[in-house]
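Re: that backbone. Tokens:
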């Protein structure tokens, strides 16, 4: 996949229509089926994007663009972190119909270091595989990142 200095790009195919996949980025109940233990989402430009990954780690930003069934853009960062603070990077998700399924392309830009790109790549790979499963009608099982981490651990997407 494409990778620029401050950007990661991932693409996956999901066995579900774009309208179904879109809801996993805008509906709190669907969000926590693949990512996080709680979510506060207000999917409109300027609306809150907040996902608690586990009791100690939360991602926060705001929605920038919400184009039903086609595109979602939100700012992104980690509460209490200086390297990638809340709202300091941008995630753009585009959805393209592919037969009975959807090709999802995720572009996460504005990451400050090569190490943060690598960490977020690992996190998005983990969560996108869970999304592929749940949006396609399967059960991704318990999320190992949802457990209370050791103090030195950080979630990465």
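Recovered sequence:
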């Amino acid at each position: 996949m494409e990778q620029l200095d401050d950007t990661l790009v991932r693409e996956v195919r999901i066995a579900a229509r774009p309208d179904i996949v879109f809801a996993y980025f805008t509906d709190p109940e669907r969000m926590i089926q693949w990512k996080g233990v709680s979510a506060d989402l207000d999917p409109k430009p300027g609306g809150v994007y907040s996902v608690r990954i586990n009791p100690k780690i939360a991602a926060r930003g705001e929605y920038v663009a919400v184009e039903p069934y086609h595109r979602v853009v939100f700012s992104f960062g980690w509460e209490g972190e200086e390297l990638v603070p809340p709202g300091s990077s941008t995630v753009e998700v585009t959805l393209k119909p592919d037969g009975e399924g959807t090709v999802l392309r995720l572009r996460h830009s504005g990451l400050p270091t090569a190490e943060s790109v690598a960490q977020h790549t690992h996190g998005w790979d983990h969560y996108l595989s869970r999304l592929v499963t749940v949006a396609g009608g399967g059960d991704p099982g318990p999320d190992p990142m949802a457990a209370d981490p050791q103090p030195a651990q950080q979630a990465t997407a």
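The mean pLDDT is 93. The first strand starts at residue 3 and ends at 4.
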